[in-house]
Amino acid sequence: VVHQVLPFQSVSAEPFTYASDLYVALAQPGASSCAILKWDYVERKLRDFDRIPAHSAVHCKPIVTQDQLYVVVAQLFGGSYIYRWDTAVDKFIKIQDIDSQKTRKPNDIEAFQIDGDWYFVIADSSKAGSTSLYRLNQNGFYSHQALHAWHRDTDVEYVENDGKPRLLIASSSQAPVIYQWNRAQKQFTPQGEVGEMLDVQMVKHFRVKRDQFLCLSRYIGDSKVVRWEGQRFVELQTLPSRGSMVMQPFSVEQRQYLALGSDFSFTHVYLWDEEKQKFVKFQELSVQAPRAFRYVPAADVQLLLAPSFKANTLVYRHVVVDLSL
Length: 325
What we know:
This protein is mainly β. It has strands at residues 2-6, 12-18, 21-28, 33-40, 45-53, 57-65, 68-75, 80-86, 91-98, 106-114, 117-124, 130-137, 140-149, 153-161, 164-171, 177-182, 187-193, 202-208, 211-217, 222-229, 232-240, 247-252, 255-260, 267-273, 278-285, 294-298, 301-306, 313-317. It comes from Syrrhaptes paradoxus.
């Protein structure tokens, strides 16, 4: 159910915890900023906290390491930047630029830790750019590896399976590719691709018990759910998804959901049926041009953020209704 309406358009939402407080970073290209909202535990609402100027922001990725808060701001025009929260003056300070020759048209950012080191990867959707991996050291983030050049990458997903870190990169021009981390070289090496799915907008993973699944969303054609079986993928389900830019699995306690957005119709929320080993229709949500769905557990409230490219950003709350009365 709708819990809060945020009166602005946005295209990404990233929850994070810093100094024991819950925040959300939202990219707002129309307002030329990254909005940082803070959860108010008394009012049970998100409130304005700060803004980072961002001319054409497509993604604002917070990274919390030990006691430092960084925000990677990816912009379509004018380069991309990294900000750090300065506790001495209580504001965000720009600490470095990201090489605009490598990252020309960013589309997605993922951040993760491998063997104690922090990394982030930016998917680049320009023909002349390449998806790039950066690593944090004492002084800032440094370029670590160029991945998958010249393929117009749309999305990147970090997956750890059997203790092996992997990256899945979706692109406009070929099936999603898999990279596996080589611990000796401290680099990702190509390992194959995911089936015969071309033009995948977004790739996301989820687990049910020991099984690992991938959700592959497409703007034209059907989106798919596949089960990852080591070296191969078994197709489980196809979902009609005309106009879908986002397909996001998320779990609330024991329930596994999947939100499939659409630019032309309602967003469909599906619920995983363990016996059938597939998703069944659960609910429709009215979100205009959704660009992300992010699950946020806020103390005793479970939220789902739905950034909209064309209308207000919506915050939904998960409610359990007792029908036995």
